[in-house]
Structure prediction request, 623 residues.
Amino acid sequence: MPSRKYDIGDTVMGRWPGSSLYYEVKVKAFNPSTQLYTVKYVDGTELELKEADIKRSQFFKSKRESSRSKSPSRRRSRSRSPGRPVRRSTSRGRDPNKEKESKIYDVLEVKLSPLPKSVINNANVQYEKKISTNNEVNSEVFHKVEFGQYEEKQKAVTVTAQNKVEALPEVDRADVRYNLRPRKEDNEKVSENFERKVEEVTVKSVRKSKTTELEFGGRIGAFIMIFVLPVIVFLLLVTCAKKDPSISNFPPSLPAFSTLWDSQVFGIVGLWFLLQVFLHLLPVGKVVDGLPLESGKKLKYRINGFYAILVCAVMVGAAIFYGTDFTYVHDHFLQFASSAFIFSVLLSLYLYIRSRWACKDELAPNGNSGNLFYDFFIGRELNPRVKSLDLKYFCELRPGLIGWVLINFSMALAEMKEQNIEYPSLAMILVNAFQLIYVLDALWNEEAILTTMDIVHDGFGYMLAFGDLVWVPFVYSLQAYYLVSHPNQLSWLFGAIIIILNGIGYLIFRKANSQKNLFRRNPHDSRVAHLKTISTATGKSLLVSGMWGFVRHPNYLGDIIMAFAWSLPCGFSHILPYFYVLYFTCLLIHREARDEHQCRKKYGSAWDEYCRQVRYRIIPGIY
Ligand code: NDP
Prediction:
């Protein structure tokens, strides 16, 4: 029977795949045939590690103590040890400056350990990268990976004392604590007070600094958008209700106030929101971890959106059985939109006010500029929660998204009533079916939202609250709203072509999102472990094959293709039903640029290498 070094239940230090960082883990199991240990990290992540990637805690303690001890007695005893190499120093004692330098150097060395085979499986990547962060840290790492084998040469990080201090916020604390690199008696000079600064900066690394890089046109852009976005929604809806929704009739004359407000409608919107909260909080469905926050903490999320839409479907069925007329939604559409708008403004105000009491490390990296309008628009808090209710996560997928399906359904009923037909038209059926599939897909794969930009990066403020509660349900249902009073006779052949187009878009969209989500959750997952990757200095890798090797942001491309397929059933008489695909393409191009910018900041030259290998962006031809 093969021997094993660690027992089940042992608490040891396990290396995080693809990095040199060691974290505390508990040994859960050992597989004698693969010789792999299943270990559980403190945050709950379970991975399989080789014995070589596991160390006893004492290993670090002894290294750390021996390298960092400032006790004179300790120094004496070490210098007297017969095992210690004879120093060439001519001085009687040891040069305290030199010793300090070597200690500091220990702390600062960054080591890139060999990657586990599964991560670099099939990789044939050869590149030299220079990591140059905004803070001008220069480290050189040479990677050579060939046909399933790898070889790695490391070069010590060469950093000047000054810019090292600035660079440290980028470095994980564990880098500093558990550096496995064998100590080198290096001659590099570093300033004396550096060690103290290292400690200071390490603590600072978990605190948030002010947002200086402003997006969406900065303060003025954000201010304008707060007012312009609702105006666009209302102009679109009013235009869509016109007999002739041509551009020549734009902008339409404003409707009477009474067509915008109805307290009963406002009550229904409030009840709908509460119903969704209730369904979300039911102890049904699994609870999963989100991605680690900057503090290292992981939040829990309940996954039960799919159940929620099923319950809503049953409730709607029952309501129809008892004679409820859902064309009410169509008939009061503007009032529903204004109620949802008021709701989103109230929610945004609440979010902004409560964020004043949020801890600094709960703030979003991009919504903390200090400007009232900008921060209100972007959202200051990253994951605002009321007890276990995560407001952003909830709003992203529930009231607006499920509401969108219900609105589409009411439009189908309204079309039958208005056009005096027994069944909805083919165009209406396609629009309803495509968008229903999109929503069901989002809810079925609810967990995947936890790795999206909205959840990981953006704060929760007016932008997302308005987007989730107003823009999505009322603008995305524009095609169905349009078809109610602007019927389009669709041939079966054209219908079939549109279905194929939507199918292609959906496959690209789904496969891309699933690959990234699986990979981010567990790079060793058998469904993605075969894909080629590029490792980055953060310890995370980037996919360079599969969907993400075909084009950058393949998920956006799939989404745009689908958006086009949703507009086509409305025919070519007016541009209005194409508003969605036009706006959405602009949104995703802008979003892609934002994400590229973020990723370049995060991954430095590894991102450039990814862009070199995967040249195409979502609009083919742009590179
Ligand atoms: P993504 O889900 O594409 O997430 C972007 C992140 O993916 C990056 O920040 C990076 O994060 C990671 N990433 C990028 N490239 C790679 C790579 N090569 N390998 C591994 N990871 C990579 O973005 P969104 O959140 O914007 O979109 C999610 C989905 O939602 C998309 O399908 C999009 O079309 C859709 N969407 C729909 C909208 C709608 O209104 N209908 C609006 C917006 C989006 P990291 O490396 O840190 O993990």
Notes: Confidence is low (pLDDT under 50) at residues 64-207. Residues 492-521 form the longest helix (30 residues). The CA atoms of residues 81 and 317 lie 83 Å apart.
